[in-house]
Design a protein that fits this description.
The structure is a single chain. This protein is an alpha/beta fold. It contains 13 helices and five strands. It folds into two domains: about 160 residues, Rossmann fold (3-Layer(aba) Sandwich), CATH 3.40.50.2300; about 70 residues, Arc Repressor Mutant, subunit A (Orthogonal Bundle), CATH 1.10.10.10. α9 crosses α11. The termini are far apart.
Length: about 240
């Protein structure tokens, strides 16, 4: 993976000329907000070389749609109804190893981008990005490359070149993918039983994860954990304020 492959190429054109040189790509959108799906459909189909073949709100709907519609690319959020997008990415990659996956999320890329790439995503872009950046990102992953923002690309290169000398100052980086997933679900307002059912785990297992999360984040109470997850958006600055 090279730096140029990971970072945004601001010179890349996103005009309609792509329609004349590339076949129409079938896009499946997984997001639990209808207005987001409608906006993405408008941006994509206005280009001429994209066709939205389906829209889903849940993990189960998305898995079924992939098998039925055979899209060329999946665009998904981390937050989906009934379950978590992290598991969706992991599952899709296991069963559809060649399907490009672009994560489009409002969740902090400094926390989630690298983790989503690790479990199988081909790219990560924030919902705050411009439509031009979004189109660059989807074309990048369709071309078989990796897409992240320039800042995340630089951070990842610094981390890997530093090797064992790299030490993160953010306690959230101490969390495993499963622990971060549960923290995210707590932030969505899900209770222990609901999380357990969603992840097909026992309540006891979820409680154990909650205890480990509190210990790693140096949080003493359940109410602090909920506040951190709901209001802090997992940022270190908010963590200090608790």
């Amino acid at each position: 993976m090279t730096f140029n492959e990971m970072c945004v190429d601001e010179s890349t054109s996103t005009s309609g000329i792509f329609a004349a040189t590339r076949r129409v790509r079938r896009v499946l959108i997984a997001d639990d907000h209808p207005i987001i799906r409608q906006g993405l459909r408008y941006v994509l189909e206005n280009e001429g070389d994209f066709s939205v073949c389906g829209e889903t709100e849940t993990v189960s709907e998305t898995r079924a749609a992939i098998n039925k519609l055979h899209p060329d690319v999946l665009i998904t959020d981390i937050s989906l109804k009934q379950a978590d997008g992290i598991d969706l990415v992991r599952n899709v990659r296991a069963h559809h190893p060649l399907l490009p996956i672009l994560v489009l999320s409002a969740q902090d890329e400094t926390i989630y981008a690298e983790r989503l790439l690790t479990v199988g995503a081909n790219g990560y872009i924030m919902k705050q990005a411009s439509s031009e950046q979004f189109l660059v990102s989807i074309r990048r992953v369709l071309d078989g490359n990796i897409y992240v923002s320039e800042a995340i690309g630089a951070h990842m290169i610094h981390k890997y070149t530093a090797g064992t000398a790299y030490v993160s100052s953010d306690p959230v980086d101490l969390l495993s993918n499963r622990e971060l997933q549960i923290l995210h679900m707590i932030g969505k307002g899900m209770g222990t039983r609901e999380i357990a059912q969603s992840l097909n785990l026992s309540i006891k297992t979820i409680e154990s994860h909650r205890q480990r999360i509190k210990r790693k984040l140096n949080i003493s109470s359940g109410s602090q954990l909920v506040r951190f997850a709901v209001l802090g958006h997992f940022r270190r600055e908010s963590f200090k304020a608790l």
